[in-house]
Amino acid sequence: MTEPGSIPTLYQWLGGSEALLRLTTRFYENVKADPLLASVFAHMDADHPAHVAAFLAEVLGGPPDYSQHHGGHPHMIRQHLNRHLQQEQRRRWVGLLLDTADELAMPDDPEFRSALVGYLEWGSRLAVINSQAGAAVDADAPMPKWGWGEVKGPYSG
Questions:
Q1: Around Cβ 2, how many Cβ atoms within 10 Å?
Q2: Around Cβ 149, how many Cβ atoms within 10 Å?
Q3: Distance, CA of 51 to CA of 61 (rounded, Å)
Q4: What whole-number distance in Å separates Cα of residue 128 and Cα of residue 77?
Q5: pLDDT in tens, 105-129
Q6: 47: number of Cβ within 10 Å
Q7: Is 68 left (phi over 0), alpha (psi -120 to 50) or beta?
Q8: Residue 3, exposed/middle/buried by CB under 10 A (0-12, 13-18, 19+)?
Q9: Cα–Cα nearest to 83, from 117, 132, 145
Q10: C-alpha–C-alpha distance, residues 1 and 37, integer Å
């Protein structure tokens, strides 16, 4: 809960862990049916939606469960190594996630969606970079933290 008069985190605004798990569960159901993305996630573990929900929760201001149980941002980077993701797949991933958020009636106010789209664009572009040949994991890569008006400098990892 937020204190009266304080600004909620993005995590709080969207409804917390339960809402994120609902989002990622439905999203990956949609991914399995998507002609462009299905093959990328063909070998997805049954726990994948929960892991992504925990990652997003932490990034958006929720509890540090992903870091505590999975190894933080370096672990997420490792999941993308040598996957050779393409921009077309990245764009579809972002679009499908936003479509799923609409399908589930997640908050759609301009401030929240602007912040969410900002993170999804930033994070998915890092995933593409980290998926190309020669990408390496920085063991000290900090967990991204995203709020209502984030501006990040160039990625140096």
A1: 10
A2: 9
A3: 16
A4: 10
A5: 999 999 999 999 999 999 999 999 9
A6: 9
A7: alpha
A8: exposed
A9: 132
A10: 36
Question: Binding site for heme: residue ranges?
Answer: 51, 75
Residue 7: Cβ-neighbour burial (10 angstroms; 0-12, 13-18, 19+)? exposed
> Quick check: 34 and 96 in contact, CB under 8 A?
yes
* Binding site, annotated residues: 51, 75
Going by C-beta distance under 8 Å and a sequence separation of 6 or more, which residues neighbour residue 62?
Answer: 9, 11, 12, 16, 17, 20
Place of tokens 């799923």: 100
Q: How far is Cα 34 from Cα 55, in angstroms, rounded to an integer?
A: 23
Q: Taking each helix axis from N to C terminus, what angle separates 87-103 and 16-32, rounded to the nearest 10 degrees? A: 120
The mean pLDDT value of the chain amounts to: 91
Domain at 11-130, CATH homologous superfamily:
Globins (1.10.490.10)
pLDDT in tens, 85-97: 999 999 999 999 9
End-to-end CA distance of the chain: 34
